[in-house]
Amino acid sequence: MTLDWLASNLEGVAATLGFPLILWQLWRNHRQRQFEAGMNIYAVNRELVQMAMHDPELMKVLTGESSADMPKERHYAQLWLNHMEIIHHGGRKGFLSRSSWQSLQQDIRESLNRPNIRRHWDEKADYYPAEFRNFINTDKP
């Protein structure tokens, strides 16, 4: 047994053992990114709800108390729709775990049950990508 033979075999063993480790690390990195994407979505949800909690005019958009016709209220409804579209994009592209994506699809459906959000969607739907429009129109709440 020569030193060259031993070195060459050790390299083969290291490469064989290293490949599964690299795959495991890639899988873990992917899972971490999915987790972070979910956390970012929930942080934006929380921020949007907090905005409404601190502003009665914005709360009208969520509660449906009255028609949200003021520019500020329409802008707030637009923020929700944009947020839903980003969630949809992330879910369809696999940036979210399957369970998070299923839960967030339900959140989108429930959000569109709000009369002011639905009215704003009906007015602005044409400005959104076709894939998102199809998702909303096919999966109406």
Structural class, judged by helices and strands?
mainly alpha
Helix run count: 6
Question: Helical amount among residues, as a percent range?
Answer: over 70%
Number of domains: 1
User: What is the arithmetic mean of pLDDT?
Assistant: 86
C-alpha Rg (nearest Å): 24 Å
**Beta-strand level of the residues, as a percent range?**
under 5%
**Low confidence ranges:** none
N-to-C series of helices and strands: HHHHHH
Termini separation: 72 Å
Q: Shape from CA axes?
A: elongated
How many beta-strand runs?
Answer: 0
Quick one: biggest sheet? none
Descriptive account of the structure:
There is one protein chain. This protein has 141 residues and is mainly α. The chain has one domain. The protein contains six helices and no strands. Helix 3 runs antiparallel to helix 4 and helix 3 crosses helix 5. It is elongated and about 85 Å long. The model has no long low-confidence stretch (mean pLDDT 86).
Summarize it.
The chain is mainly alpha-helical.
